[in-house]
Amino acid sequence: MWQPVKQVSRVALMLSPALGDSLLMMTIARNLRLAQIAVTAFGSQMQVIKDWFPDIDIRPDLTEDRLDATLPEFDAVIQMHRDRPFVDLHRLHPRVILLEPLYRARSPEAMADRLARFCKEQLGLTLAGKSNGITAPPGLEHRRHSLRVAIHPTASTSDKCWLPSRFLRLALQLRERGFQPQFVVAPQERAEWRHVERSGLTLPHFDSLHDVATWLYESGWFIGNDSGIGHLASSLQVPTLSLFMRRGIARTWRPGWGSGQVLVGSSLLPTGRLRERYWKYMLSVGKVTQAFDQLRAEFA
Q1: C-alpha distances in angstroms, 251 versus 23, 50, 142, 235, 240?
Q2: What's the rounded Cα separation, in Å, for the pair 82 and 98?
Q3: Is residue 271's pLDDT more than 80?
Q4: What pLDDT does 1 receive?
Q5: Any bridge partners for residue 202, and if so which?
């Protein structure tokens, strides 16, 4: 059970392997630090961009064989999922809190808002907000390339991905309208997206998540699937258009920091199975373009 904040001085965050989940958990890290509570976040992805979180102690992932020696240093341990990165943490520490009830609850709030409320109501951090505290290193200019549209056509699983051919058509239409669409994919995904270069589109190479964050921070817009890169863009206050397969998933996991639009492709399909299978076919390029125009109008 969670102890009152006044009885806690050091907290360990076991960050998720997923980028979006890790960025969300950094909201808790920031709110604890604002309350003068020492926080150590363990996670490889956040460790790569630790310079973007200058006030938080971020370390690489813990391994199973290091848990016994490390966890006793902390008064409490927080993990989002009950089974990742570690299973049954309660066996190793008397004060473990899992965030799974937050995202399983029926609520109209996005996870960023749910976590802010959790920090206020459950942790007693009365001044808590939903910012995760991400801060660009010196020398960067926010949205410097105002016409650059970052397009992220991949996701953690294929069922979350809109059709590649439609992402290509979208990018070509944006280019005709004077925008500068560029595709952002992971190094291991580049081979299957080389075809966009044959259409004269840009597929920049990134050596690390730090490079992606730098590029996103100076981009004007983001369009992509339900993914961690969408959460990164949103936390950097880049206006986002996120494509989701189902409304319930979008309600909980939509990027919740900056200006954004969510487009659900399965609204007219009657069952969850049909929505997951056919949403990407139901979502036309025209609908995405229209939603992007609405985002631009709202942001202006």
Answers
A1: 17, 29, 28, 17, 15
A2: 6
A3: no
A4: 43
A5: 182
Q: Is the pLDDT of residue 3 over 70?
A: no
Instruction: Work out the percent of the chain whose per-residue pLDDT is above 70.
Output: 98
The pLDDT score that the predictor gives to residue 4 is: 52
Q: Which domains does the chain have, with CATH numbers?
A: 5-121 (3.40.50), 145-299 (3.40.50.2000)
How far is the CA of 197 from the CAs of 149, 182, 183, 190, 201, in angstroms? 16, 10, 10, 11, 5
Q: How far is CA 231 from CA 48, 213, 234, 255, in A?
A: 16, 11, 5, 5
Does the structure show a pLDDT above 70 at 229?
yes
The verdict on pTM exceeding 0.85 is yes
Say how far apart CA 174 and CA 149 lie, in whole Å: 8
Q: Kindly report the number of other CB atoms within 10 A of residue 8's CB atom.
A: 19
Task: State the Cα–Cα distance between residues 232 and 216, nearest whole angstrom.
Answer: 8
Residue with tokens 């909980």: 252
CA–CA gap between residue 61 and residue 16 (Å, rounded): 9
- Is the four-CA dihedral 286, 287, 291, 292 of positive or negative sign? negative
Pairing of strands 180-183, 240-244: unpaired
